[in-house]
Each structure stands twice: as C-alpha cells, then as structure tokens.
C-alpha cells in the first residue's frame, strides 16, 4: 500500500488520491518538476490558480500528459511497474481543497487458469473478494471480467446503503467515455427521497477504495477499476476463451428458429432482400454464440398466381423468369386492358390447381423452385450465409390449415363475407382490423399458410423461441399472425417474435427497377480491386487479390447496411457503399489485417505469449485498450436484448480507433523481450475480439490486404 501526500504549507493537506476521488475532475496542473536527489524520485505538482499547494510523492512517481487540451494524471507504483491513469481533466480550472483521506491498493496477482467458478473464487479470495460477492445469479464472472467488479461494487453499495444488491446490478451502466469511469451509477434512477447528488457524494466517500476507485460527479458515481487487476483478467480471459470470448451460456439447452431471407422464387436476389438476409444471419449467429441451438429457416415465397414458362430456361433461368415476371405485372397493371383480368383469372385458376395437388400444374412450378434455390445458394455462400432448411408456402399441410379454420370457427371468431372467410381482430385491437383466411373460391392466403407453417414448425422442432425477420412494411401481417396464434391457445405462441427493419428505398421487383445483388457484389469487387492496385507494393504481396477484393467489397456492403438502427430506412446509393471514408467495412478489415501483420512479423513463439508477464503494460493507451476489450461481453449481453447489429459495429469501430492510437507508442519490434511479449499479447487479444465481432456480423476477417 502506498500513501501519496497532497500538501501545502506544513504538509497539512490531502493525499493525491483524495484529489482523484474528490476534486480531480475540476482541477488542472501547470507542470511537474523533480526535487531532491535522484533516489527519492520526489515530484512536485503546482496547481493552476493555487499558489502554495503541491503534491509530494514519497514512494513511487507521478507524471502528467497533455492530450487534446486535457491533462491526464498518472501515478506510478515502483514495485509493480504499473502506471495508472486516474482521471483526465481540463486545463486552467481551480482546485477544490476539500480535505479527506484515501488509500489505494493495487493487486498484481496473475489471473491464470481460471476455467471454473471455484478457480475464480480461489484467485480472488486472496485479495479480499469473497465467494458471496461472485455468486450472484445475475452475473457471470467466469466469462465476463466486468461482472467481477460489477458484483464487488453492488455488494459494497448494498453494505453502505442497506439497499438490495440486486437493485444496483441492473442500473450500473458502462460509462460513455473512458474518462468518466468503467461503470457509472446514476443515483437518480433509484428514486429515493434524498437528493441524488447528495447521496452520490456520501456513498462515494464511504466506498472502500481498494480494487475500485469511486468518485461522485453530480448525481452520478463513477467507478474506476484497478487497471493492473483488470489487465490480468481481460487478457487471460481472451486468451483462454479465444473464439468464444464474450459468449455466455444463456441459451444452453434451448432451441430457436430464425426465419429470414425468404425471397420469392423465379426472381433474382436484389438489394431489397439483403436486409432480412444479413440481419437474420446476424441474429442467428449471436444466438449460436450464446449457446442456443439455431435453425436457420428460409421460408420461400414459392406459392401463388405469378408464374412463367419453361422456354429459355437453359440459357439464363433466373433472368428469364424475372423478365416474365416483370412483363406480366406490367401487362396486368395497364389501365383499360381487357386481357389483364383474363390473365389474372387464369393465374388464379393455375394456383388453385397447384394447391389442390395437380401433378401436371406442379411440374413447372417445381422446376422454377429448384432452379431458384440453387441460384440463391450460390449468392448466400458468397455472403457467408447458410440455411438449415429451405421451406416454403407450398409445404404447408392443407390439414393444418383446415384445423386452424375449424378451431377458430368453434371459438366464434370467424365471419363470412361474400363466400370469403374472415376473422375480425379489431375487437382485440383496432389496428389489427379484419384478416381474410380463405378466398371465396376456397384458396388460402399468405396468412392462412403462415399459421399452418408455424404449427408445423413447432410440431417438428419444439422450439423455445421463433423469430420472424421481416420488414416493417409487413407489421400488420405479422401482428395478425401472432395474435391468431395466441387466440388458438397455443402455449408457445408468446415465444414467437417479429423483428422488423426499415426498407431499402427505390427497390421494386414489380416495376423492374431492382438492383440485383450479384451485380452489386461484382461492382463492389471491381472497385475495391482498383483501389488495391493503387498501392502496387502491397498489392504484389496479396496472394489472391480477386478474393481479397471480393471480401472487402462484401464487407463494405454489409457494414453500411447494418451501421444504423434496424428500423431506419435508407436509400441505395453507390457512392456510400463504395466509400473508403469514415467508419466502413474496409476500415475494419484494415484494422484486423494490420494487427495480423504485427503478430506475423513479431517472431515471438506462441508459448511465450501464454506466459507473458503483463505488469509492463503501463502506458495510457494500453490501459485504454484493455478497458475497451473488457466491455465486449457486456456488448454481447446488450445486443442479445436489442438484436441491433449496429451496437456491435459501433463497438468494433471503437476498438479499431483505440488500437490505432497504440501503434506509435506500443512498439513490439526492437523492444526488450518482456515488453515486446506483453504488448504482443495485448495485440493478439485485440485481434481476437475484432475477429469475433466481425464474424458475428457475417464478415470474413482478412489476414492480409
């Protein structure tokens, strides 16, 4: 334990740590200077606007660094070589000279071989963290290093306030900026009678300042973790878990069906289909990452009155079917066209025959369906997407649909209107309105088939959750579907969810204005290839430039599509897709490949990395990077609740920016072995987190580009 004295005349003042806890956020320093002999390492700090007060560090050292108009105070513990940023603060503000006392102990134990709760308990018991603190059901300290500190903070806040530990756990938030702490408690959210800012100050003063430093800022309490202890946990957890770092077992023993993509057959895959496909794939990936058994389901629109013919199929089947599709819709949409209704009538008759199982009518349809699926599979594989099952409206049991009609009829929920069968859902909610389940000719509709399909899926899979990834344009349809499943008294109905998303504007296959995805991918690849060629030296080192250009091009498309909230619409703009400016897919790929290059050129054996001593990771940028990497399990937990891919994208760009700021300081080449090994261990951990997040999003991380 090292005590730092903050003194003025007569040494009657505060410790430096007092300044950290009570006043540092409102103070500034001009400069430091060394006094006394070199062995003492005594430093004086003179505060702006305060003539007499100086900080005297008798054991260890302290330093400050100006960065973007702010000054960061660091203190240095000589025995463990750990330099810790306590706070950063704006220059030329006055010091609050409130008195107090404060001590800080940093624990330097190497946290290795932590694979079970018992392993963790044994390690932490030595530094005063009991098993009771770690065994809270709401936390997962063996998988999430921040949960160790979250549990510790909640436990001690409970002791100070007599408020339940479980009250604090859910409201401890990640600080938006690192200078504001690792976790923050917004006291106002507790809705207590006392003033939040008064409580924040009182609780911060009483909080035991050991492995966590507490500081009040208005009605918030900011908690800063011991960087040395956090470093040991985070790096060891990442190296231990590898591809599974950030994951959890929340879905263990549970099964989920994710329905996504679901294009109509005989039409090319266009940008309008992209959103459901990549969002659904992401939702599948993150559930699988959290131990769910995932069934990726492609429910094809393979049933209906729109059809083509078999001519010219051999040359370009999908394009020909699409051309027929557009021509038919253009023809029937023409006003004052007496043949249009006749064509529609024939189409309805054709569909009715297929629904009745007429083999002659089904033959051509099956040909179209099989060709479409084979073509889709090629595009899906290029996007890093696979399906476990290709279903479709055509596979829904007629018996199931009739059973649904009978059940609803017995509940007196159905009405007839000119021969058609309707259900009036407006009695439950006006916005649900009336829904048709059977046409007057006896043919079923999308809704009828979707109900029957849901029942079939549960009978087959016994799922715990089913998600429909469908655009917001289909909000009414999905709301009606989910309500009818509920009215059927199906016990699993409430396990079915609709995850919506905004539209790619300007896409309409009915008008023939679609931008085909294969064309988009080809254009993106060509553009990326041209950019790569501009740096001939690097280009010559890339083993397969066509492959790399394709991967980077797809990364650009995927990231720009998922960068904003799901519900937001966006216009398909080539210039934005292909831009290399700002936070883009190519930038993420570059960040990953640069880390791969550093690791590749280090020539340090991997066994050395596993045994690396981390005490020399003392630089401010290193600590900042570690604090960001620590947040990944929390990011996963948050994203599992919201299913917003943009949350992970924002986080990955933060990681990329912070690691980029490390390169000028944290050299690996030509450094002492212990320093080089520790830094490389950090870079490997960072690369692993980037890799994990990119794969969840559907990207293929590149080693070279």
List its salient traits.
about 700 residues; Gyrase A, domain 2; Rossmann fold; 4 domains; five-stranded parallel beta sheet; about 45% helix; globular; disordered N terminus
Kindly describe this structure.
The protein is α/β, with parallel strands linked by helices. The chain folds into 4 domains: 5-90, no CATH class; 117-225, Arginyl tRNA synthetase N-terminal domain (Gyrase A, domain 2, 2-Layer Sandwich); 255-396 and 453-511, 3-Layer(aba) Sandwich (Rossmann fold); 517-696, Isoleucyl-tRNA Synthetase, Domain 1, CATH 1.10.730. Helix content is 45%, strand content 15%. It has a 5-stranded parallel sheet, with helices on both faces. The chain has a 4-stranded antiparallel sheet with strand order 8-9-11-10. The protein has a 3-stranded antiparallel sheet with strand order 5-6-7, with no helix packed on it. Strand 5 and strand 6 (70-77) form a beta hairpin. Residues 1-112 and 306-311 have low confidence and may be disordered.
């Amino acid at each position: 334990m090292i005590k730092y004295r903050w003194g003025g005349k007569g040494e009657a003042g505060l410790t430096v740590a007092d300044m950290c806890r009570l006043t540092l956020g409102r103070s500034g320093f001009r400069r430091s200077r060394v006094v006394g002999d070199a062995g003492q390492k005594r430093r004086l700090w003179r505060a702006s606007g305060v003539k007499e007060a100086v900080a005297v560090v008798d054991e260890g050292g302290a330093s400050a660094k100006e960065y973007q108009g702010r000054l960061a105070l660091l203190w240095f513990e000589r025995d463990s070589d750990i330099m810790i940023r306590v706070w950063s603060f704006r220059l030329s503000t006055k010091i609050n000279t409130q008195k107090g006392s404060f001590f800080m102990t940093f624990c330097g134990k190497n946290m290795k071989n932590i694979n079970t709760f018992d392993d963790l308990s044994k390690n932490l018991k030595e530094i005063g963290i009991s098993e009771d603190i770690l065994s809270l059901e709401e936390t997962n300290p063996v998988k999430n290093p921040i949960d160790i500190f979250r549990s510790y903070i909640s436990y001690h806040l409970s002791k100070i306030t007599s408020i339940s530990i479980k009250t604090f756990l859910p409201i401890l938030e990640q600080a938006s900026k690192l200078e504001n702490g690792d976790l923050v408690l917004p006291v106002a959210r507790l809705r207590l009678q006392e003033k939040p800012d008064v409580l924040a100050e009182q609780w911060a003063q009483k909080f035991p300042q050991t492995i966590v430093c507490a500081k009040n800022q208005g009605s918030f309490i900011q908690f800063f973790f011991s960087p040395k202890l956090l470093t040991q946990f985070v790096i060891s957890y990442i190296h231990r878990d590898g591809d599974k770092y950030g994951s959890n077992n929340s879905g263990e023993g549970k099964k989920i069906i994710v329905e996504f993509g679901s294009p109509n057959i005989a039409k090319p895959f266009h940008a309008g289909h992209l959103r459901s496909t990549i969002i659904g794939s992401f939702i599948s990936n993150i559930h699988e990452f959290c131990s769910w058994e995932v069934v990726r389901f492609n429910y094809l629109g393979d049933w209906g009155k729109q059809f083509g013919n078999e001519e010219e199929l051999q040359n370009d089947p999908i394009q020909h079917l699409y051309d027929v599709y557009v021509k038919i819709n253009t023809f029937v949409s023409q006003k004052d066209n007496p043949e249009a209704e006749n064509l529609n009538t024939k189409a309805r008759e054709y569909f009715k025959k297929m629904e009745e199982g007429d083999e002659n009518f089904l033959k051509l349809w099956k040909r179209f369906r099989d060709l479409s699926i084979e073509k889709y599979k090629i595009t899906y594989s290029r996007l890093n997407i696979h399906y476990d099952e290709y279903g479709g409206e055509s596979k829904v049991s007629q018996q199931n649909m009739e059973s649904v009609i009978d059940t609803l009829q017995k509940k007196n929920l159905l009405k007839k209107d000119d021969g058609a069968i309707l259900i009036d859902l407006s009695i439950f909610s006006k916005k649900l309105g009336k829904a048709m389940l059977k046409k007057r000719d006896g043919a079923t509709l999308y809704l009828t088939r979707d109900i029957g399909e849901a029942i079939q899926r549960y009978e087959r899979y016994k799922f715990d959750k089913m998600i429909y990834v469908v655009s917001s344009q289909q909000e009414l349809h999905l709301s009606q579907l989910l309500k009818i499943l509920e009215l059927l008294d199906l016990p699993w109905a409430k396990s079915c969810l609709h995850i919506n998303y905004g539209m790619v504007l300007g896409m309409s296959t009915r008008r023939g204005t679609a931008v085909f995805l294969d064309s988009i991918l080809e254009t993106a690849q060509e553009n990326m290839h041209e950019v790569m060629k501009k740096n001939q030296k690097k280009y010559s080192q890339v083993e397969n430039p066509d492959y790399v250009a394709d991967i980077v091009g797809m990364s650009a498309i995927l990231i720009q599509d998922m960068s904003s909230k799901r519900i937001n619409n966006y216009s398909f703009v080539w210039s934005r897709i292909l831009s290399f400016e700002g936070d883009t897919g190519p930038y993420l790929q570059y960040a990953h490949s640069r880390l791969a290059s550093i690791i590749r050129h280090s020539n340090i054996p991997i066994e050395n990395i596993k045994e690396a001593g981390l005490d020399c990771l003392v630089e401010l940028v290193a600590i900042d990077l570690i604090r960001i990497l620590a947040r990944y399990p929390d990011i996963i937990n948050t994203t599992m609740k919201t299913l917003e891919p943009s949350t992970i994208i924002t986080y990955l760009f933060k990681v990329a920016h912070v690691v980029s700021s490390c390169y000028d300081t944290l050299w690996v080449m030509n450094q002492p072995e212990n320093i080089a090994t520790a830094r490389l261990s950090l870079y490997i951990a960072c690369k692993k987190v980037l890799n994990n997040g990119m794969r969840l999003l559907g990207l293929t991380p590149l080693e070279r580009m």
